Amino acid sequence: GEDVEQSLFLSVREGDSSVINCTYTDSSSTYLYWYKQEPGAGLQLLTYIFSNMDMKQDQRLTVLLNKKDKHLSLRIADTQTGDSAIYFCAERDYNTDKLIFGTGTRLQVFP
Amino acid sequence: KAGVTQTPRYLIKTRGQQVTLSCSPISGHRSVSWYQQTPGQGLQFLFEYFSETQRNKGNFPGRFSGRQFSNSRSEMNVSTLELGDSALYLCASSVEQGNNSPLHFGNGTRLTVT
């Protein structure tokens, strides 16, 4: 079945760039998404990329997609303490349309 | 525009009871999905509704059910609660089913079963 994997933790210094990585198995995925979850809150949609694209930039966020390797990354430029949260990548299953989520990466930003 | 609204925010129930959770989607959104989030299993898909019809269902027992009303609002019900049903239940809405209709999530209902 489909599987989406992420590393569990990432710690960066304020002002540095953060890169959160994700690998997925379903080669027929149509869209891939990044969500952010802060404590006690739901999931906030950050950005998404269509599978025929290899890059998308949105202000401080850059998404890179390597479809051959089924690898997705989210780069956050000039990381701030407010960026501390759990980040989930998700792929959209081609057959069922449901979202398959990764395990989430906890980003900790220290001063 | 108001976001996805879930009520209640917190619930405490005992084993064997049943519970109903409510979700109001973003205005104009016709598709509603439900997810269960637990520390051990992560985010698991429960079901999706579109135009009052269940379109997709995850691998959960029949104790988990849902429905969608004509105004797109949705409810999910869990009967005969078990300790393992303790979780954050997230509702998400999208404009339409499939294609590029990103899901927008509510803040969830945290259910604790004792």
Number of helices of chain A: 0
Considering residues with a beta carbon less than 8 A from a beta carbon on another chain, report the largest interface and each chain's count: A-B, 22 and 24 residues
Task: Report the radius of gyration of chain B as a whole number of Å.
Answer: 13 Å
Morphology of chain A: globular
How would you classify the helix and strand content of chain A by structural class?
mainly beta
Number of β-strand runs of chain B: 11
C-alpha termini separation of chain B? 37 Å
**Global outline of chain B:** globular
* Rg of chain A, nearest Å: 13 Å
Helix content of chain B: under 10%
SS field, number of helical segments of chain B: 0
Oligomer: heterodimer
Low-confidence stretches of chain A: none
Mean pLDDT over the full residue set of chain A: 92
Order of helices and strands of chain B: EEEEEEEEEEE
The number of E-state strands of chain A comes to 11
Q: What is the beta-strand fraction of chain B? A: over 45%
The largest sheet of chain A is: 6 strands, mixed
Average pLDDT reading of chain B: 94
What is the ordering of alpha helices and beta strands of chain A? EEEEEEEEEEE
Query: Sheet bearing the most strands of chain B, described?
Result: 7 strands, mixed
